[in-house]
Amino acid sequence: MASELEPEVPAIDQSLLECSAEETAGKWLQSTDLTREVYQHLAHYVPKIYCRGPNPFPQREDMLAQLVLLGPMEWYICGEDPAFGFPKLEQANKPSHLCGRVFKVGEPTYSCRDCAVDPTCVLCMECFLGSIHRDHRYRMTTSGGGGFCDCGDTEAWKEGPYCEKHKLNTSEIEEEEDPLIHLPEDVITRTYNIFAIMFHYAVEILTWEKESELPADLEMVEKTDTYYCMLFNDEVHTYEQVIYTLQKAVNCTQKEAIGFATTVDRDGRRSVRYGDFPYCEQAKSVIVRNTSRQTKPLKVQVMHSSIVAHQNFGLKLLSWLGSIIGYSDGLRRILCQVGLQEGPDGENSSLVDRLMLNDSKLWKGARSVYHQLFMSSLLMDLKYKKLFAVRFAKNYQQLQRDFMEDDHERAVSVTALSVQFFTAPTLARMLITEENLLTIIIKTFMDHLRHRDAQGRFQFERYTALQAFKFRRVQSLILDLKYVLISKPTEWSDDLRQKFLEGFDAFLELLKCMQGMDPVTRQVGQHIEMEPEWEAAFTLQMKLTHVISMMQDWCALDEKVLIEAYKKCLAVLMHCHGGFTDGEQPVTLSICGHSVETIRYCVSQEKVSIHLPVSRLLAGLHVLLSKSEVAYKFPELLPLSELSPPMLIEHPLRCLVLCAQVHAGMWRRNGFSLVNQIYYYHNVKCRREMFDKDIIMLQTGVSMMDPNHFLMIMLSRFELYQIFSTPDYGKRLSSEITHKDVVQQNNTLIEEMLYLIIMLVGERFSPGVGQVNATDEIKREIIHQLSIKPMAHSELIKSLPEDENKETGMESVIEAVAHFKKPGLTGRGMYELKPECAKEFNLYFYHFSRAEQSKAEEAQRKLKRQNREDTALPPPILPPFCPLFASLVNILQSDVMLYIIRTILHWAVEHNGYAWSESMLQRVLHLIGMALQEEKQHLENVMEEHVVTFTFAQKISKPGEAPNNSPSILAMLETLQNAPYLEVHKDMIRWILKTFNAIKKMRESSSASSVAETEGTITEESSRDKDKAERKRKAEIARLRREKVMAQMSEMQRNFIDENKDLFQQTVAEEASNSAVLDNSPMVSDTTLTALGPAQTQVPKQRQFVTCILCQEEQEVKVESKAMVLAAFVQRSTVLSKNRNKVIQDPEKYDPLFMHPDLSCGTHTGSCGHVMHAHCWQRYFDSVQAKEQRRQQRLRLHTSYDVENGEFLCPLCECLSNTVIPLLLPPRNIFNKLNFSDQPNLTQWIRTISQQTKALQILRKEESIPNIASSKNSENMDELQLPEGFRPDFHPKNPYSDSIKEMLTTFGTATYKVGLKVHPNEEDPRVPIMCWGSCAYTIQSIERILSDEDKPLFGPLPCRLDDCLRSLTRFAAAHWTVALLSVVQGHFCKLFALLVPNDNYGDLPCILDIDMFHLLVGLVLAFPALQCQDFSGISLGTGDLHIFHLVTMAHIIQILLTSCTEENEMDQETPAGEEELAVLALYKTLRQYTGSALKEIPSGWHLWRSVRAGIMPFLKCSALFFHYLNGVPSPPEIQVSGTSHFEHLCNYLSLPNNLICLFQENSEITKLLIESWCQHIEVKRYLEGERDAISYPRESNKLIDLPEDYSSLINQASNFSCPKSGGDKSRTPTLCLVCGTLLCSQSYCCQTELEGEDVGACTAHTYSCGSGVGIFLRVRECQVLFLAGKTKGCFYSPPYLDDYGETDQGLRRGNPLHLCKERFKKIQKLWHQHSITEEIGHAQEANQTLVGIDWQHL
Ligand SMILES: [Zn+2]
Ligand SMILES: [Zn+2]
Ligand SMILES: [Zn+2]
Ligand SMILES: [Zn+2]
Ligand SMILES: [Zn+2]
Ligand SMILES: [Zn+2]
Ligand SMILES: [Zn+2]
User: Fold this and answer.
1) How remote is the CA of residue 1359 from the centroid of ligand 5, in Å?
2) pLDDT confidence of residue 171
3) Contact 739, 651 (CB under 8 A)
4) Which of 228, 880, 1021, 1402 has the fewest CB atoms within 10 Å distance of its CB?
5) Residues, Cβ < 5 Å to ion ligand 6
6) Across residues 897-902, what is the average pLDDT?
């Protein structure tokens, strides 16, 4: 048996390597039967190269294939070494002016909104940047792969079809030049030969279906017995299912299974087992068995290895062909010829046909290879593109049928190529006329929707899952239809007319199947049991919307076509309505002496459908007749006499009545499906071809019939005829209170009916209906949207209908109607309506939803009140109707209308009852207003000698007719004007009366035929009185309003204080505590303030009172009282890191005592500044913990904080916290023993401290070895001369209360735990170090923020920062009291030894590798542990000062050693000063000690400058540190920003202004020290250039530089491939904004293990780059991602905005995006402030769904 371990790589057959391409080619050239020769060659070699084992070795296979198989072909084609032959061909080639670059997945593509013929025309980035379109309005998207650059295609662009690069090639193109003339004759023949053989071979083998037998001419003599078990891709099974099954079936690891699954998904197939037949067959059966339970099984085949080998080579061959034709357009032409040449079997037998027709049988990888070849060959050759298009059209039905059966996405189907032909205008036209493409597509579509009801309409009701799946696929046909129609013909031939109308016929057939589909019947009594299916029908309607519009656009272009189409459409509609008047006897309706016959029909009782596409298409065509004036030019050609207006209006009216009844609540029992349908009927996506057209159809109807008849039919359909034909109906109902529901219903119906009349008269903004153009229409839409509220660009776009090019036309008019307001740091740019446009506002605008209408009404009235105008919202002045619709206005003055108006006004006058509503009245008033406006317009535009027949004003002044004898409408209005219950409508009534008078005047002055004097005229007198009263009333209202506003304001203020309690509390507390300081400041102000040392400014003790946010009790902060704490958040940080590659490998062994100056990992402490009692906090935290445990047991819910890790939210501000800091008084004061005796100078002090540390070391050593004889001990003690006054056995008493001590330990332990990522251990000697470190690091990070923002060091810090730093510093200073004295002393000794050499410590780091500020903080804060045992009289202050001076000196040396000494002589202007000379002297000393390894520098000026600059951050940090430590107020000079405060800082820090004096004053000891520092081996290595060192000042870290234009990022990301799966494009390329690394996020391939868990690339990266915190940009989504730890994350708005001030998360809109520097700075600031985690916390609290996301997998 063969061993289980297969050899890694089988050995290469030596004979292969000896193959000579030249020789083989030579043999072929001699051959008489080339085909046989080549096939034999392939039969022999292909199986020797490919498929030699279980796994492919692509590199080796490629290498051998090139050598043995492809090489000879290249030789053969060229007739010489291809290395020379191909370049020759390339040179002779006249390159194409087409770009044709095929897009990779994720590559950016650009389309020009101004010049692209349709949105499918795109450019690659390179072409775009070199084109004129970069300055146009363009759109940017990322390609889904496939498709290519249209640069150079003159049909694709209205302007600028070439980029600069491709323009070069156009100068010399002669159209239709045969590219073959550039090729030598013999090359043509040979190429033809070899292409024909090879292309044929590839097609044959790829479409080969037998599993173990090869084509006869490829069979081998010795056949091996090896098979593959080949697994194919499908779209049914998930990744997880496949992985699981494979592990079972072929016994592989999960990792291998993931590998298989990934390849199957990408390439479409992958062998999962290799071996003999039964072995493979067994795996196959397991897979099939395992995956066949619910669905059809995964496709698996056992294939002979030689077949797989040939297929693999076949693919290689196709790519090879693709690359060979790149050398010359002539070669490409030959390949096209070969491909399209008809084969021996006649029709459909060309190679191209064979591939297409086998498309659905091929696996994904094979398809994409040959599609790409087609794109680079057939589609790039204009002549053959045409021929190919014809083949495609001829096969269209079959291809679509295959696609329906296939389960792959459309993107990998050959049918997706349709976009390449159908959108090319001439090709599309040719296909329509020659191949009848329109009809074919529509018929194919109909073929796939077979399910019909009894009337032949589509039936989606009982769709099975499979049918639904097919229905989804079949929709792609609509897309094809859209492509064909997208470019409209400029010229019509008779052929085109005929074929288009044929297509139009087919289209009408399609619409006929939709007319009346999904009918509904009102459900009474019981609620429907099951929601009926409605979505499919609406999907169809929605997808067809653009096609319907485009069909009309085409008709509009040619009068003959329009007339024919109109006739056809009318015929179909009549056919649909055949039998419309059948059945029952008609009923007769009569009102006001008019009567009409109509059918009996009740919407509420019979079937009604929302789908009426045929009626609506006719309405659209009718408008076109008017718009194009065909109706007036050729009336005799039109079947206008056949039109029956009642029939035209019937169905649209039913549909509108249905909406009204649904609104009136009559269809409640029909469930949500109906509500949804009505919603979509009005929705912006559908309304253009649904609701809008129904209104037009009614307008058409009214304009052709007696308006009185129309109104009666309408009353009848609204089921209101009874109400209006019965006198006193309203009165009667008011007494029957039991029918409240019915009354309510009828009221709503009346309102709806009035609304409909308003719309019929008022909606004249469709070109053709009214005398307007498209711009007017869009302007009006925008005005009404902005009347609701100011809107962002994207919001506005969404509310407007898009045309087939996804354009709304908004940009062209927006400037005219709106102002743009730019966005701030957050939010979006907004458009605001220009005030002058408000007069065009129509309250009853037909596209308003109810909610929008009431919002708009409120907004507009408010605006009017603000402008101190009356609040009437009268109807706007409207444009005139087109002649075809002109008679429509008469509906307003028709008898029935006046009767309706009078009736409703009458009800309102007799207002006691339920029979009327205010909105009813409001609508009636609006209608009256419209009529008056209309009359006024007529009068103003009247021509001489014409009589205005519109006499509404006259009619309303007449009293009602008998028998009622009611008063005139005008009289009733006057009555209502004074009705107290109609306050809101008074302004409107007043406006009506005013307009009425104006009209009366116009009539009187213009003509003799004056309006009859009526009884109801208003006298000017009374109206003037009224005006006066009115003004008074208004003044009163204004006063009341003002008072109300004032009250609101103060309320708001109170709320504000409540909401920002913390802020106010802090300010108050702060004022209190600061006032103490400030009060004292006059006392100290005349002397300079000194922060440390014996000369420290003495600050009187301040008492500090704080209030607990939990129990609200106030308490004084005292040493002995209960602890008060601040909520705090400790985190690791790399924000200041200068070395992101450094990670703490083993935290348990890591020694943090010396911080490296690269600050690679620090511990940051932040706080929201909220104060609590320690015990209150503990109780709070316990309850949070308990609650969380209960919750976790119940449901596995996550929270935004991790309780198990000690996290909680601040009870007041919900800020994420993980520990608390105790509040303390300045701790130094407690230990500072005042001593006025002489204090030692630096030299003496160093000596004393050295002695003390040495003594301690000896003591410790002895303690650690207790079993050694005590004699020796005493001996040592003798030897050890304890320095005078030093009492190492003394242990000071801890002054703090137990509660404070406990909190000191709590915070210390938390810092240790988080900072080192270890388990808490309060006794670990590293605890105090971590506390000091966190204090130092936090101060450093704040100093950086202040410097970067050019803020003064002691300017007004935010309270929370101030509180945090104060508490943190004092805490760190007090922490030693809870640590072991010996431990702290030990740390001090070691830190001290770094500066003052001590034999007891070997290998300490050299001074180049120390962060001096960390060292300073450590030394100063550890010093009390030593000093407390010293009774010789050295004060703490003296120690501080000497430590500070010592560290400062070390820092100066550090700076001098590392300063970049670039000489710049010309800088030196002034003669050398004192400092310069001193520093030069020091530098010389330094050179002396370093053996002159330092460069010689003659100028002290430069040195001094680097010292000053280098030391500034250190001085600033030190000033902050000592300020918070000792509580000395800062000098006022440093509180304001300004130039360097060097001198002030020096004074405050007790330093000489000439820092070098420090060295001079103590020259004796300093020389020794410098010498010892320079002796360190590392310093020597550095000076010899063997290593690097950090130089000063350290620059602040910044987030990476982002490009201004977002597309360059997309481009960068599209070139990025996953680092783990060889060359694959990453699906979610994600950019780390901290270090600029691109990652392959959210994907199996790049998951790694981190602390035992699988995490995605981003999470893994945060651990090395940001110690757990990460800031990323997801490039494809244009989304910022914040991550913290494994469980926390959120998305954040990206720093890229479009021209409208909006972000585009998800890149859906595709507007060009540009970097917004301010927003990017804001992100950077969050990072610098260590607020990323906090930001995530807030985001997660605000949006709980964020908590559920598996952030660790990103
Ligand atoms: Zn291009
Ligand atoms: Zn180009
Ligand atoms: Zn353009
Ligand atoms: Zn409390
Ligand atoms: Zn808080
Ligand atoms: Zn990074
Ligand atoms: Zn990857």
Assistant:
1) 12
2) 52
3) no
4) 1402
5) 1632, 1634-1635, 1637, 1665
6) 92
